[in-house]
Structures are given as C-alpha cells and as structure tokens.
Amino acid sequence: MIEIHNLEKTDSVFNQYMAELRDAVIQQDRMRFRRNLERVGQVMAYEISKSFEYDDEEVTTPLGVKEIRTMHEQPVIATILRAGLPFHNGMLSMFDQADSAFIAAYRKYDKNEDSEIRVEYYSSPDIEDRILILCDPLLATGESIVKTLNGLMEDMMPKEIHIAVAVASQDGLDYVERTMSRLPVTIWVGSIDEELTARAYVVPGIGDVGDLAYGEKR
Questions:
Q1: Taking the model in full, what pTM does it have?
Q2: Which residues is 76 bridged to in the sheet?
C-alpha cells in the first residue's frame, strides 16, 4: 500500500506558502509565484529527507571534532518540464549534490476534446537501486506521473520512489495508488482537492502552473 503524507494537515509556515501559491492576486507577480514554488519544494525536500538512511560522520572544526549524522546517499530528482522547474530548483537547493532528470510530457487534445498524455523526452542518470524523487507541482489525473515513472523504470529500478506534488486531486491520487501499489512509492502532497473536471482541471487548484511561472504558451 502506498503511503501518503499530506503536509497541509500540520500547521506550519508551509501553509502560508501554499496560500500564496493559490492566491489569484499574488500569482500576478510571476517572480513571487516561482519563489513560492521553490519554497514549497524546499520544505517538502526537508520532510522527505527525514525518511532517508543516515551515517555517522566525523567533522573537523577549527577547535575539534564533532560526530554528525549525514545522509548515506544523495537522491535523483526528476521533474516534468516546464512547470516543474521552480519546484525542482527548490528541492535541488536542499539536496545540493543530487543528480537530476528531466522529462517532457504534455496533455494532447484532439478535435473531439478527447485527450492523452504524451511523453516525448527523457534525460536521466542511472537510477538503478537509487532514491528517486519525482516532483511535479500539480497531480490532476495522475497519468503523466505514471507514464513518466514507467518510462524512467523501463530498464532501471530505483530502491525508493518519492512522488512530490504541491496540489493533487483525490481522483489522481487514487489512480496513482491503483497503478503503482506494488512499487516502493511514497507520495508527499502539499494539499488535496476533491474536484477534477472533465478537462482534467483540479478545482480550486492553482491554475496553469507553467503559464503562471513563465508566461502563456501558444
């Protein structure tokens, strides 16, 4: 069974960042929107780090030696372009020696308004037997997350998989749980929304994260 950690259930400054991330007025400041995504990524990276394995390390200071518990290994942080870039940067500022993977995926609509998720590009280091964190600001249907993970794991299997999202629909979480239940997956979510529209919009959601961060696309 997949474990889900919902960070909004604990009162902290994290919820202030989430409130600003959703606020339609504050969103008009594009730089602040990106910064809030980064801050959400930083807090989530800190929470994820608590689940890692740690070793004793001796650190030499100017006056002596101190034994400190440090991470046994650095993760691989993967993100889906382009919306995930600020979120990824926030995580990378915490796991500053981590490797990175980038995936190009998008939802394609046809003339009948039917849609499918297309994944067209992977750039990834070796993730065999490593800790993989897949971060994406919005989990709507869950299809892009599942397709991305299946593509990354085509010939490599991580020992741990962490899915980190700022906002998720309940339907999307249910879909990921059904399809990924046999894998070592933990989901970290900033907030869960109940409504998912026929066009895969999460309500109240955030909006189009890529457009809000970088400008409208053609």
A1: 0.92
A2: 99, 132
